[in-house]
Write a structure and sequence with these properties.
Low-confidence stretches: none
Shape: globular
Strand order of the largest sheet: 1-2
Structural class: mainly alpha
Strand content: 5-15%
């Protein structure tokens, strides 16, 4: 299930055929650029799509059960997803060198989800990396965690309670793997710093696939 490498090689080879610029520097540069843009946009699209689904879900429950019940069902009943969401923000901020100044999993007074606050550190380039990766962390960690939980659910024989727990975790995780407007702004603010080294990595990978 997780062995996507052969398919990835076929995809790169297909891109070379589509671009039709040869396998030299020009062709590899074009293919690498396409892959880079696809990665950057995919995080935005997935994050915003999940955000839209969450809003539609809230509207649905609000229509039938009222605002308070809908808020509880969408947010508090899936608190496990909120915890993972904030932990992913904190993890990516920490590993990129930012200083975590505050973290909350349950904001009672604000009637909102949890939040983290961090202070970017280091040179301008590194701060841009911190902003961008911290912003998109819930999408990356959330999707990876959802795939992992789904894999366990589909491949492991377990009791009803364990299956119920896995279903709950899956729903909670995917329900809070979205990218808010604030996250999107931070992501785009620093994406240039991520794009530079990522493009170099993709370029080398594409050259390696030719041999």
């Amino acid at each position: 299930m997780f062995n996507l490498y052969p398919q990835l090689l076929k995809f790169v080879a297909w891109l070379y055929d589509v671009v039709n610029c040869g396998t030299g520097f020009e062709g590899t540069a074009a293919v690498s650029g396409i892959i880079l843009v696809a990665i950057i946009l995919s995080l935005v699209i997935v994050g915003l799509l999940l955000n839209l689904i969450e809003r539609l879900e809230f509207t649905f429950f609000c229509y039938f059960f009222g605002y308070k019940a809908a808020f509880y069902i969408v947010n508090y009943a899936t608190l496990a997803g909120t915890i993972l969401h904030e932990l992913s923000h904190a993890l990516f901020a920490f590993i990129t060198g930012a200083k975590i100044t505050e973290i909350s999993f349950f904001d009672r007074d604000k009637e909102s989800l949890g939040h983290i606050a961090y202070q970017p550190k280091g040179p301008f380039f590194l701060q841009a990396v911190q902003h961008s990766l911290t912003a998109c962390a819930p999408v990356i960690v959330g999707i990876a965690s959802f795939v992992f939980v789904s894999y366990i659910f589909l491949t492991t024989t377990c009791g009803v309670w364990a299956q119920t727990l896995l279903i709950y975790l899956g729903i909670s995780i995917i329900n809070h793997s979205s990218m808010s407007t604030a996250d999107l702004k931070l992501y785009l603010k620093g994406i240039w710093a991520i794009a530079i080294p990522l493009y170099a990595i993709i370029f080398v990978f594409c050259k390696m696939t030719l041999h």
